[in-house]
Amino acid sequence: MAGKWQLKDHEAERAMFSRRLVVAAVFVLLLFAALIMKLVNLQISQYDYFSARSDGNRLHSQYVPPARGLIFDNRGKLLADNQPIFNLTIVHEQVEDLEVTLDYLDTLIDLSDDEREQFANRLRRNRVPFSSVPLRYVLSDAEKSRVAVNSYKLPGVAIEPQFVRQYPLAELTAHSVGYVSEINRAELDSLDDEERENYGGTNHIGKTGIERTYEDLLHGTVGYEIVEKNNRGQVMRRLDRTDPIAGKNISLYLDSQLQTAAEAALGDFRGAVVAIDPNTGGILAMVSKPGFDPNLFVTGISSKNYGVLVTDNINTPLFDRSTNPYPPGSTVKPFLGLGGLHHELVDYEFTIEDPGYFRLPGVSYRWGDYTLRTAIGGGHGHTDLQKAIYQSCDTFFYDLGNRMGIDTMHGFMSQFGFGQNFAVDINYARTGVLPSRDWKRETRGEPWYPGDTINSSIGQGYMWATPLQLATAASIMANKGKVIQPRMLKAVDGVPYEPVINDPVADVVVNDPDYWRYIEESMSMVVHRAYNDVFREYGTAYEAIAMADREMPYKMAGKSGSAQVVGISQAIMQSEDINVSDLNKDHALFISYAPAENPSIKPQIAIAVFVENGEHGSSVAGPIAKAVTDAYLLDILQIDFEALNSGGDELLSLVDE
Amino acid sequence: MNSQDFIRRSDGLDSKTRYHKSIWRTIHTDPPLLVGISLLCGFGLLVLFSASGGDVPVVQRQALTMIVGLVVMFIVAQFNVHFFRQWAPTLYAAGLALLALVLVVGVEANGAKSWLDLPGLPSFQPSELMKFVVPMLMAWYLASRPLPPRFKHLFWSAVMILVPAGLIIVQNDTGTAIMVTMSGIFVVLLAGIRWRIVIAGFIALLLASPAWYIFLAQGHQKNRILTFWDPYRDPTGAGYNIIQSQIAIGSGGIYGKGYGEGAQSHLDFIPESNTDFILAVLAEEFGLLGILFLISMYLFVLIRGSYIAYAANDMFSRLLAGSITLTFFFYVFVNMAMVSGLLPVIGLPLPLMSRGGTSVVTLFIGFGLLMSIQTHGRSKSI
Fold first, then answer.
1. What is the pLDDT of residues A574-610, one digit of tens each?
2. Any idea what the CATH number is for the domain that residue A481 is in?
3. Same domain, residue pair A317 and A401
């Protein structure tokens, strides 16, 4: 060992160590210098870039959807409300693997294939990056907590509160108020850029009824906010905000109590009731039965539920019977009779001898009297216009129509809204058909035959009208020619609404105003002319209305009608579990207004009732009109006719208010 | 007789006559080092408070760890450094035994099976001990040999470094293995290893690295290196940390966004914002000036450490103090370079800033050794 021993030179070693220390210090300083250069590069040279990146990380601009305006009936009852629900939403950009996330969510809240597909559709839609897309509307409390507890495993998944439409009356207003539902691709495409911007935060749009007609009023204006979001997409702070402008609250003329009464009056029948206040044109009730629950559509109807609605060929709940046309049948007779008086084709003294059928000169074909076909043979005998109305004598009107000619008939009837849509704000209503030579040539490519006129004079053949049109015509009759176009919207944010009508409809003017009284008297006889000794001289609806309610405190002017069923689909004809003979029954119709023939009070309500396969206008549709009228005059307006008839003029003024 | 005795005698001839005893020397504490460490600890707690989003318990726990560290430092400083020199081989042997024991009964945490959970003792990482035991042994070994070391000594030095480093790598704790290796290498470098050997070793390392990359590197290591070259090859995955950290640093600018105003960290865009990536929080909130302030505090500690090494009485003390100081620098630099994108991501904390337990105490043991070197048996005053 000693041989290998080498004496250490401590001073030299110490100097060497010090040199090494200096070298190390140089390295330390060089490395720090490199580090500082890197930091200068990041924090000074690239400051703007990274600053923007930092803001881009955290700052997100998002839409704030406006609250949709509420819809009230004419006495402040809610027809469409906004209710809070909790939605499960996903921000696609923040989800690592969408399939894995959806599969995991499936274990928490049971996603159906339907929901997955709808979600995929929503994702494909034009949307702002990093916007949240709903996966499931309406989470239950249990589902909400299951998702919340596991939220750390679910980046990009959030539970968001939202206000959605709720229709308290459900089926009752399904067609008239309509519903909102998720906005679709086509609707988005139909918007211009500015409108599309306005729908940036909105999931829903009015699809039918009032919701669609007044979409612009109800929707409001979108707001914006800039929010700071963290790494998991949670909003931490709101930095800037432009408040949305809520949609306007609107009130309708619709009276939910009358709507309920009308729906109840229809009973088990399919059909429609439209009631109009002739003084304002306000639509008091508009029922199509059966309805459906519009609330189902708001948050996306399942294909199963939707299937049930669309495959019901008999009840067709989605079909709005109040605004779709049917042959009006005998309900057109009072209008035609008025036309006959105006054009001096008949007068109060004019009579015919009715053999029970009508023949055109030189033609062997006999147009039978439909109203008599089930009764004993023969005709009405000696018949004037009044009897032709209250007994609904076809032969009289065959003759009148024939002498009037289609051109005059078209011109006169169109003043009452046949073949047109007089309604101010029900633009989806069909116009039906008021046939003319031009119409037949254009649609059928055929000339007009005299026989076509004969069919039209009793509201059959080519003539089609909607219950809304019939109620409109009845209200014009009630107003003695003054036209107040029907309307739904009564007030906006509490301010009475007067619609701008660009092309107002002219009033109906007849040569002698007494004609109105005469026709009203005739229509009143339909309801009130009692059985007497003379053969066939009672009103067709007497038994069902005035006789059924001998206490009836007011008079009602009415006219029944029945319309032949035109065509039943092959699918239904071949179906075994449907009684086809029931479906072949005539549709029953009734129009009316009341109170009639009352010097103290003007008519308050005009009604059209349509009962699908109801068979008898007088006995089936008539009592329904009576029930609705009772509900309005006696229950809602609570008019005291006894006091009124004993000459209380002051009461009249009360009612007018 | 051995060389140690000789050294002692030649150095301390008339020390007693010039000995000037101050209160600091009595309690074996070096005031400049203590001030530097305390400033860093205070600043670290301040940044951690913001980085943790105002989580008081987290800051309290970290403060407690630091106090424990200071106490440990104080206790270590009471021992004369020659006590450690005498016990270095024993400590080393014991350390190796514990590392071997870890392989058998170790407990796994954070992917590394490096914890010992012996009954009656708080659980700890023997690999942490090796961070100062290895340089201690190297200093003991080389200080008694003629310097610069001969090749034979270098060979044994390499064995003494690589055996524990290998055991730690087997535990799957690469970061600590690198630190242990570096702390040993720093001793060898300071001991005057010839430059041509250093350069040759460096070139050999460069040449070997492709082979390492192809044959030995694990998937996540390759990924880290690829991500280092281009963070945007996987911006939401492997590159996410470094991209977000660069955004935080860059958006801090010169003056920073202000204390507690760091959007990147407060909105959780920076992962590990309390630990390895805390520099990003500091840079975002205090800007370039904040980082320069931090670097200058580190420099202050480094300069004081270097001075202690320079002024030490014997070669063991010099080598140990030098290695501890350079290891401290290595920590600081690697972490800062990693967070700012100058080096690939290696899981190393920023000393005295990052939240952590065992590694903080290890640091303070190092500072304790520095203070021991500075305050025991020194004839000159500071």
1. 666 666 667 778 899 999 999 999 988 999 999 999 9
2. 3.40.710.10
3. yes
For residue A381, give its domain range: 256-656
* Residue ending a domain, choose from A224, A251, A278: A251
Tell me the catalytic residues of A: 330
**Least Cα separation, residue A44 to chain B (angstroms):** 6
Name which residue leads in pLDDT, B52 or A235.
B52
pLDDT score recorded for residue A148: 85
Tokens standing for B219? 């998937």
SS3 readout for B11-28: HCCCHHHHCCCCHHHHCC
Question: What is the amino acid identity at position A650?
Answer: E
Is A47 at the interface with chain B, CB within 8 A?
A: yes
Q: Are residues A94 and A158 in the same domain?
A: yes
User: Mind listing the pLDDT tens digit for each residue in B46-83?
Assistant: 999 998 888 899 999 999 999 999 999 999 999 998 89
Give me the residue from A6, A35, A230 closest to B337, CB to CB.
A35
Q: Nearest Cβ partner of B254 from A34, A44, A228? A: A44
A190 shares a domain with A338:
no
- Shared domain for A474 and A432, answered yes or no, is yes
pLDDT above 70 for A371: no
Decide if B268 and A13 are in contact by the 8 Å CB cutoff. Answer: no
A25 lies in a domain?
no
Considering the domain boundaries, does residue A46 fall inside one? no
Tally of structural domains, chain A: 2
CA A144 – CA A135 distance, rounded (Å): 13
**CA–CA gap between residue A261 and residue A268 (Å, rounded):** 13
Question: Does B253 contact A at CB distance below 8 Å?
Answer: yes
Please provide the size of chain A in residues. 657
Judge whether A592 and A606 are in contact, CB under 8 Å.
yes
Chain B interface includes A653 (CB < 8 A) = no
- Tell me the helices (H) and strands (E) count for chain A, helix number first: 24, 21
Nearest-by-CA chain A residue for B318: A17
Between A143-152, A373-382, A498-507, B57-66, the lowest mean confidence (pLDDT) is in: A373-382
Task: Give me the CATH number covering residue A103.
Answer: 3.90.1310.10
Per-residue pLDDT of A104-150, as tens digits, reads 888 888 888 888 888 888 887 656 666 778 888 888 888 888 888 88
Do A10 and B10 make contact, defined as CB atoms within 8 angstroms? Answer: yes
CA distance B249 to A568: 77
Distance CA B158, CA A465 (A): 106
Q: What is the mean pLDDT of residues B161-178?
A: 89
Question: What DSSP designation does B124 have?
Answer: B
pLDDT tens-digit series, residues A308-329? 888 888 888 999 999 999 999 9
pLDDT of B379 > 90? The answer is no
Beta strands at A271-276 and A381-384: parallel, antiparallel or unpaired: unpaired
Q: Count Cβ atoms below 10 Å from residue A437 Cβ, excluding itself.
A: 14
Q: Does A140 touch chain B (CB under 8 A)?
A: no
Alpha-helical runs (H) found in A208-255: 209-213, 215-219
Distances (CA, A) of A182 to A216, A299, A301, B167: 16, 7, 10, 64
Choosing from A216, A251, A286, the residue where a domain stops is A251
Residues A246 and A271 in one domain: no
ipTM score over 0.85, yes or no: yes
Tokens of B106: 């170790």
Question: From the list A13, A21, A44, which residue is nearest B288 (CB)?
Answer: A44
| Lowest-pLDDT range of A220-224, A614-618, B107-111 | B107-111
Are A519 and A616 contained in the same domain?
Answer: yes
Q: Do B342 and A6 touch (CB under 8 A)?
A: no
- B248: contact with A, CB 8 A cutoff: yes
Per-residue pLDDT reduced to its tens digit, A448-469: 998 899 999 999 889 999 999 9
Same domain, A396 and A494: yes
Residues A246 and A296 in one domain: no
